[in-house]
Amino acid sequence: MGPLSAASMENGAYQRGYSHVLRNELGDTADKSVCSGSITAVSVPYVDYEEWRGRRKLVQSSLHYQEPLLNLYRVLLTIAKNHIPEQTKKIDYEIVTCWLQSAKLARKSGHQQRAYSCLLEASVLNIPETFVEKSKWHWNKATLMLAKYSEESAVLESNALILMYRDVVAIQPEWEEGHFHLAKYYDRVMTTLEKSEKKSEVIVHMVQCYGCSLQYGCRHLFHSMSRMLSLWFDLGTQVVEHQKSKKPSQNLEHWERMLNVMTTKVITNFVEKLPPYLFYTTFSQLISRIGHSHPGISLQLQVDQQVGRKRRKLRT
């Protein structure tokens, strides 16, 4: 209870304390299994499947917290299988069910390779649930492939393609690839727009999508982070140039509003959510813009640096 008491006095106490609670849960489950004789040959073997299911339902439904519990169940079931030969079929089914749960969690979290590995483990038994989960895994990729093919073949207009890419994100909201390819398509659409007010709106959507892709993976880190910051900086530069112009654009007010939304809501949100090390990949880009011509961006960069320092101190 010592670590849990200490965690309750810090910022983010719930998340820090939850990890300790989960460790206690893992230890308690293992201890009960051993003491009840469920994985020993000393007493009558017994595995309480329903209790394990009930316990797992009480744990947060995220890969980070559910996976350790599922790993423990698979280990305990594998050991129990050696001591309870009469329950081999039942135990095999429960092990496969655990692999399917891991596959589902990994798929929903955007870890497609991990999901595929779990599906291979679950394929030892040809149960209907395995085929259903395999179909969902393939559908994720098929939807994105269809959108990319429709774009390359130019069989649909831009609005229809945007809807297709948005469908990919809706089907798998925590998948890096979906957000990244939606952002890239917005990028291509922006070059065809003539009205500047539409461009500023698309830029905000692009920054949002690139940031979301970074939340769920680092495969496209160097592209997404650099492009996200460049769009922000460039929009700020355009606003300043039009402010200084002798004949300010009629859309200047709209641009300023979009820049304010991007600066105070979108960028600030990702600075708080993304790990600081992701921003280090664009360190030179950030340093070169610390004295940005737009005072709002320059101030935000300084605030972001302070936030980063505080987060590093909390982690250490």
Concise overview:
The chain is mainly alpha-helical. It has helices at residues 2-7, 13-35, 49-57, 63-83, 88-108, 112-122, 128-153, 158-171, 176-190, 196-215, 221-244, 252-273, 276-280, 283-288, 295-315. The radius of gyration is 25 Å and the shape is elongated.
| DSSP summary: helix tally | 15
Helix content: over 70%
Return the string of H and E elements. HHHHHHHHHHHHHHH
General form:
elongated
Give the distance, in angstroms, between the N- and C-terminal Cα atoms. Answer: 21 Å
Low-confidence stretches: 37-45
Q: Largest sheet, described in full?
A: none
Please describe what this structure looks like:
There is one protein chain. The protein is mostly helical and 316 residues long. Helices cover 77% and strands 0% of the residues. It contains 15 helices and no strands. The chain is elongated, with a radius of gyration of 25 Å.
Provide key terms for this protein.
elongated, single chain, 316 residues, 0% strand
List the helices and strands and how they pair.
Layout: H1 2-7, H2 13-35, H3 49-57, H4 63-83, H5 88-108, H6 112-122, H7 128-153, H8 158-171, H9 176-190, H10 196-215, H11 221-244, H12 252-273, H13 276-280, H14 283-288, H15 295-315
